[in-house]
Amino acid sequence: MKLILDTDVNLNYIQSLCMIFFPGAKFAQDEVVTEETPIVTVKSFHGEDGSITASATIQIGMQSAYGEFTQPLKSGIDEKRAGKIAVGKAVFRAGEKFFGHTPSWGIMTGIRPAKIARELYDIHNGSEFHVRKSLRHEYFLNPKKAALLTDIIVKEKEILSSLKPNSCSVYISIPFCPTRCAYCSFVSYATKRLHSLIPEYLERLLLDLDRVFRLIRDKGLTVTTVYIGGGTPTTFDESQLGLIFDKIAEYVDVSTLEEFTCEAGRPDTITEGKMKLLVDAGVTRVSINPQTLNDEVLTLIGRRHTGEDFFKAYDIARAAGIRYINTDLIAGLPGDTFRSFSKSVDTILKMRPDNLTIHTFCIKKSADMALSGGFSNYAITSGEAQKSVDYSQVKAKLMGYVPYYIYRQKNTVGNLENVGFSLPGAEGIYNVLIMEEMQHIFAVGAGSVTKLVSREHAKIERTFMPKYPFEYLKMTDEEFKTQYIDKIDRFFDTYV
Question: How far apart are CA 329 and CA 44, in angstroms?
Fold first, then answer.
């Protein structure tokens, strides 16, 4: 795709707008333009009255469409935001004319749509009606998405209102999996050679957990949630997992935690021994993720388990006494039709998991499927994905589940969303915290990101661990101090 810009609106924002209509688009500056290359031209200028007018043209070969919008400056809208609104609506109108359809999420981009909705909730003094109205008329969301997002922020506000002062969460990264899914780009490792790093990785992880828990104690903070994620933490054997649990127990009275999660996403990594170990360690929540119950699709995407394996793993976790179980499904997987996906949804809901998260298929650029030309799946499966997502959300609500968190990603089929549903009272607290950025989250391990939050100063600062396990293992004590500890100290000295 080629962009021609005459505007001071942020480039990344304009690219995100284009990807609403061109999922998987690339924006290489040296791209050779052909008759099939989409060309998007965006311009904006200031009017004499202070308003900002933007225009957008989408052209492919001889076909083109034009959109224009003028945004006046008014209370609550500064010049920067007015420019984004004008450009967003101009691009949207051009895309709507060119393709003949209206995207369900309008011009809303970014991973955290609930943040915008919460701002509207505060502006309108808690009026859900006015939140839905603003989402529809200012961001062009369709009524179903506006209602969904409003329901979610109401539930989120309920969860966030119970946040304790001087509290924090801890995230522990276990970036290893039994196999790599074809659509995945997480820092997760599945070969025997890379699995050989596990003993050394575990030793380093335990050392850093010591450092981080001491830092948390020195800052006078209380840990309220612990989340062990990946990858697939249950790739580790019982003795390895036990060492992590013992380390946590050295610093935290796990009985006081509001939530203690350990992902067990791959059914083929779950055993009775591991589930008993988790329960004895105080773990209250696990994720067991079939993604689909269609065995042919599971093979196609690189999973090494069957639907039957999922049922067995689920029964093992329930029998062990895990308090809350989440299951993930992915709408729009290659080879999965609306009929087969809806069957997976129906089957899972009959099992009554405490949480059901419905993701939309998304190929990351570094995933195996993307590298082999998998982006072609967007055009093929978007209609099936839309029906699948709509069905899952309606059916979950009919079965007594409530939506409680949401996030969106670039390059999803149909530009759709990921939504977590919960039985009332069983919401995953950490899921809300990580998306809404209202609490410090201290992260340990390869690819993890510590997030420090000052609500008083409206400041968020992120500190990144080395992305890959072998890089993480090479990190020296001095580098850990300067790149992690010192950064955290400076944030607390300045903002806390």
Answer: 42
Whether 162-443 and 1-101 are alike in CATH topology: the answer is no
Task: Single out the residue of 253, 255, 263, 266 nearest to residue 285, CA to CA.
Answer: 263
Looking at the chain, the number of H-run helices and the number of E-run strands are 18, 15
Tokens of 407: 């996030």
Task: Give the residue ranges of the chain where pLDDT is below 70.
Answer: 75-76, 180-193, 363-382
Q: How far is CA 365 from the centre of its chain?
A: 16
Token pair for 162? 């119970």
End-to-end CA separation in angstroms for the chain: 45
**What is the identity of the amino acid at 4?**
I
Strands (E) across 374-422 are located at 402-408, 417-422
Task: Provide the residue type at 165 as one letter.
Answer: P
Identify any residues that bridge with 405 across adjacent strands, giving them in sequence order: 420
Contact predicate 426/468, CB 8 Å: no
**Residue 419: closest CA among 462, 389, 385:** 389
d(CA 120, CA 197): 48
**Two structure tokens written together for 403:** 């939506």
What are the residues whose beta carbons fall under 8 Å from the beta carbon of 425, sequence distance 6 or more? none
List, as one string, the DSSP characters of 29-67: TTPPP-TTS-EEEEEEEE-TTS-EEEEEEEEETTEEEEE
1-101 domain in CATH 3.40.50.720?
no
Amino acid symbol at 282:
G
Query: What top-level class would CATH report for the domain 162-443?
Result: alpha beta
Strands 285-287 and 324-331: parallel
**Which tens digits make up the pLDDT trace of 106-160?**
999 889 999 999 999 999 999 999 999 999 998 999 999 999 999 999 999 999 9
Bond preceding residue 307 cis, omega within 30 of 0: no
- E strand intervals along 348-474: 355-360, 402-408, 417-422, 440-444, 449-454, 459-464
Q: What pTM was estimated for this model as a whole?
A: 0.90
How many angstroms separate the CA atoms of 475 and 228, rounded?
A: 21
Q: Would you kindly state where each structural domain of the chain is located, as residue ranges?
A: 1-101, 162-443
* Nearest to 260, CA basis, from 283, 228, 241, 276: 283
Specify which residues 412 forms β-bridges with.
362
At 378, which helix (H) or strand (E)? helix 377-398
Question: Would the CA dihedral through 103, 107, 112, 115 be positive or negative?
Answer: negative
Contact between 332 and 385 under an 8 Å Cβ cutoff? The reply is yes
